């Protein structure tokens, strides 16, 4: 672990006096300022995220999400979503760092109008069996624990084919990042709805197997040609990998949802993982640059984040801010547990900002603080 000393040379240590304060006032009048007054804040020894670890319990959120169904029409709201907001990032409506997440509910038989935006989006289904999305004319059906992507700039619309029950899925977007870069655009489809292709799940059928199509038109877009990743084969892939490898000491058996053409992330700004914790497994702690939103996909366990313990079960959502120590544990001695997660690692890697560090003290486990949540 790295230690830092604020008394070392190279840090700003200028004391105010009347002459300096008057000087600062003069600079402010011409929209200028003195770097040394903010240098320690904007150039810290190590990342100082404003986001804090948060656990959102699905059992608490679910009734609130369902209450929105009769209260707000989806077309009036644009999307009927309960967003999850980090106390340290309220001004950005962010869940952690520059990532947004929320729970969207669609009633039986509902269909939303098509639009596109600069922000990239992804979906993870919590409940319901009638969910569908159309991305650039390709219709995709998704069910519980399926993962789907909506790349930035792609036309998309959503709906629920079921006539019996609502659908709830989790949205993940890079809206705060796009807004921070002043690059946001939003556009409604000129015909309000797309004309879907004849074959449902065509992207999964074409690119979702172990083999790649040959002799077809080359895919040149900067995101995955697969728009949906069903739960069953994804979970089976984890089980198969667990037979061959021990996995990561920090994350258990972990796999990345990948662009099958490049092996890289599903989208340029956001990636996603699925990880398995063996029965009774407890990982050791590490930290990295980049923010992560986790969803408990299967089982029950806990995660220790920045010294606080957060107990989770299927459906719960929690976040790990950048450079926060974290570790995970499966509370069940008989069944495995799985965590789905999405993150901004592609941005960190593309900009050369990714860094990772292992926690080496106390056998790799953090000491707990008093306000742990269980």
From TrEMBL:
Q: What organism is this sequence from?
A: Kitasatospora kifunensis
Q: What is its EC number?
A: 1.13.11.4
Q: Which GO terms describe its molecular function?
A: gentisate 1,2-dioxygenase activity
- Name this protein carries in UniProt: Gentisate 1,2-dioxygenase
* KW Cell division (keyword) present: no
PANTHER family assigned to the protein according to its UniProt record, in alphabetical order:
1,2-DIOXYGENASE PROTEIN-RELATED, CUPIN
One Pfam match, given by its short name, reads: Cupin_2
Q: Top-level EC class, please?
A: oxidoreductase
UniProt keyword Transport, yes or no: no
So which domain of life are we looking at?
A: Bacteria
Its keywords, alphabetically, are: Dioxygenase, Oxidoreductase
Q: Where is the Cupin type-2 domain?
A: 103-169, 274-339
């Amino acid at each position: 672990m790295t230690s830092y000393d604020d008394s070392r040379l190279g840090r700003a240590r200028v004391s105010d006096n009347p002459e300096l304060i008057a000087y600062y006032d003069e600079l402010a009048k011409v929209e200028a300022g003195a770097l040394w007054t903010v240098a320690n804040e904007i150039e810290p020894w190590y990342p100082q995220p404003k986001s804090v670890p948060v656990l959102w319990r699905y059992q608490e959120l679910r009734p609130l999400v369902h209450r929105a169904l009769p209260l707000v029409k989806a077309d009036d709201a644009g999307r009927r979503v309960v967003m999850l907001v980090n106390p340290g990032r309220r001004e950005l409506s962010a869940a952690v760092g520059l990532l947004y997440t929320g729970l969207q509910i669609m009633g039986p038989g509902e269909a939303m109008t098509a639009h596109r935006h600069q922000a990239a989006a992804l979906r993870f289904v919590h409940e319901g069996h009638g969910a569908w999305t159309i991305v650039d004319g390709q219709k995709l059906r998704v069910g519980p624990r399926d993962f789907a992507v909506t790349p930035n700039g792609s036309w998309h619309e959503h709906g629920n084919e079921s006539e019996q029950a609502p659908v709830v899925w989790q949205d993940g977007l890079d809206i705060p990042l796009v807004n921070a870069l002043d690059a946001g655009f939003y556009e409604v489809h000129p015909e309000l709805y797309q004309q879907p292709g004849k074959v449902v799940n065509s992207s999964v059928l074409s690119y979702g197997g172990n083999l790649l199509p040959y002799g077809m038109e080359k895919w040149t877009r900067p995101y995955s040609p697969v728009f949906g990743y069903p739960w069953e084969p994804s979970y089976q892939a984890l089980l198969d990998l667990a037979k061959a490898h021990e996995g990561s000491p920090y994350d258990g058996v972990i796999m990345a949802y990948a662009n099958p053409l490049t092996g890289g992330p599903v989208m340029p700004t956001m990636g996603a993982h699925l990880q398995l914790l063996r029965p009774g497994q407890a990982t050791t702690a590490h930290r990295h640059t980049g923010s992560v939103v986790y969803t408990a996909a299967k089982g029950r366990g806990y995660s220790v984040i920045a010294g606080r313990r957060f107990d989770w079960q299927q459906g719960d959502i929690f976040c790990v801010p950048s450079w926060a120590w974290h570790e995970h544990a499966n509370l069940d001695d008989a069944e495995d547990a799985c965590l789905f997660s999405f993150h901004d690692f592609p941005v960190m890697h593309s900009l050369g900002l990714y860094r990772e560090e292992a926690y080496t003290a106390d056998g790799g486990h953090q000491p707990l603080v008093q306000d742990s949540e269980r």
